[in-house]
Amino acid sequence: MKDLLRTEHLSRSDVDLILDTGAEFAQNPFRSTDALANQTVAIYMTKASTRTRLASETAVAHLGGTPIFLRGDDLQIGRGETIADTAKIISGFASALIVRTFAQSDVDELGAHAQIPVLNGLTDSDHPTQLLADWLTIREVFGSDISGRKFTYIGDGNNMAHAWLTMGAIMGAHVVVATPPGKWAPDDSAIKVAKKIAEKSGAKIEVLTDPEVAAKSASVLYTDVWMSMGDPESLRVEKLKALAPYAITSELMSLTEPDSIFMHCLPAHRGEEVSAEVIDGPKSLIWREAFHRRTTIQAILYHLVRGEIQGSK
Ligand code: CP
Ligand code: NVA
What we know:
By secondary structure, the chain is an alpha/beta fold. Helices cover 42% and strands 14% of the residues.
C-alpha cells in the first residue's frame, strides 16, 4: 500500500507493525535518523492543528528528513490549480505528503495522483494517525489480550467516532459508540465499513444512544470535542443541547471497570464534553496519548516510505 488515506485500509498486521515500531520510537526517538536523510516531507493543512503538526514535523526531523509546512492558502490549489497537478508537483519535491483538510475525497484524489505516500492527517470523516496513537496507548495499559474488554466512545458521531469504530473492528475489539440519535449519529457508511471488517476480525460493534449503557463495564471511555473544525456555528446551540447528556463526568466514569482509563484526542473543552475532574484526574491518559502522536507518525512514515505496509486488501 502506497498511502494511508483511510483507517479501513490498514490490516491488523499493519497496525501491529506500526505499533511495535512506534513503541521502539518511544524508547529511542533517534533509532533511525537516516531513514529520511536528504529527503523532505510536505505537510499541507487547511485546518488548524497543534498535535498533528508538531508530531509530524518532529517525526520527520527524528527520521533525518526536513519537513515543509504548507498552510491552506499557501498553495495555488486555492486559486484553481487542480488537486492532480498539485499532487504531481509535490511528488517532484517531497518523499511523502501529510495532509489535513475537509473532504475525504480530496485526500483520496491526492493519493491517486501523487507518486509519493500520502497520509491522512484528519478529514471530516476520518483520523487514522490519531487511532494509531490511541491503540499504542491502549496496548501499553492493557497489553495485547483485550478479550472481555469494552472500548467505548461517547459524544459526537464525527470523524473520531468513525475512526474509533473502524480501528476497533480491525483490532477485533468490542467497540461501542454512543451518540445522540439522528443528525449527530455516526454515518451509516462508517458503521457499515466497521461491521464488514468485524465479520472477519471477530470484533463486536455496538452503536448506541444511551451513554450509561455504553459506559457500563467499559475499559476505556473516549470522547472528542462537540464542535469539530468545519462544523457550522449556526448549529452550535442545538448541537450542544443534544450532546449535553453525553458529557463524560465522574458519575459516568464510576460505571466503568475499576482499571478503566479516560482518553481524548484533544483539543478538549473542560466543562463541555468532559469534566475537569475526569480529564485532569488519575484515570486520564491524555498526555501519553498525545505523546504517541509523534511515535506512531514516525513509525507509519518509516514503514510507508520503505513500502512495508501491506494494506487490508
Ligand atoms: N488530536 C489532534 O489531531 O490534534 P490537533 O488537531 O491539534 O492536530
Ligand atoms: N473532531 C475533531 C477532531 C480534532 C482532532 C475535529 O475534526 O475538529
